[in-house]
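Thread: quick sanity check before group meeting

JM: Hey all, I'm pulling together slides for Thursday and realized we never actually wrote out the predicted structure for the chain we discussed last week. Dropping the sequence here so it's in one place. If anyone has concerns about the input, flag it before I start.
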Amino acid sequence: MNTIKTDGWTQQGVSLLWDISGLEKAAQPSDIVSFRQFLKMQKSGEYKFSASNGKSLVVVGLEGCLDTLNPADAQSWLYADAANAIFNFQDSYQDRAGLIFWLPGGRQRILTSSTGDEYFWLCAAPNADQRLPIGQLLFGGAQSELQRIVKENSSDYDGNDWMGLYIRRIS
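JM (edit): ok, ran it. Output follows.
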């Protein structure tokens, strides 16, 4: 299982983050934009890099978007719209900026396969028995390159010290 400690992950690549201490390292509340604002920035090409000392964009609302859609629509939306916005961001900024998605409920909602190399999103009620292959939908063929973000000085990669997921570049 690939892991990355909390140093450096905020300034490049794409992260799914759910630990509040990790968010506090990266951003102030005024630095965070909604998913809708992110999509508007993506269309205009003008991003607001105020997190991580001006090197990252923190986006909230992905979780809410997924919860308001039925699983089939959520899967289509993740694959087509959300992933496309991430690809466009990376194409524009390469390794010069980080993109962090704040998922407050992510620790309880992102599950792994028994082998630990696939990641799933646990849908909200009334579809709580369904799972979306979020790793595959958002990161495509690069899912195997996902790393777990864990707190410094920790070896608890599955427990409370697991803060999120990180990938340097989606191919």
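AS: nice. The beta strands are 3-5, 13-17, 32-34, 56-60, 98-102, 110-112, 119-122, 131-132, 147-150, 162-167. Residues 75 and 132 are 7 Å apart (CA to CA).
JM: adding both to the slides.
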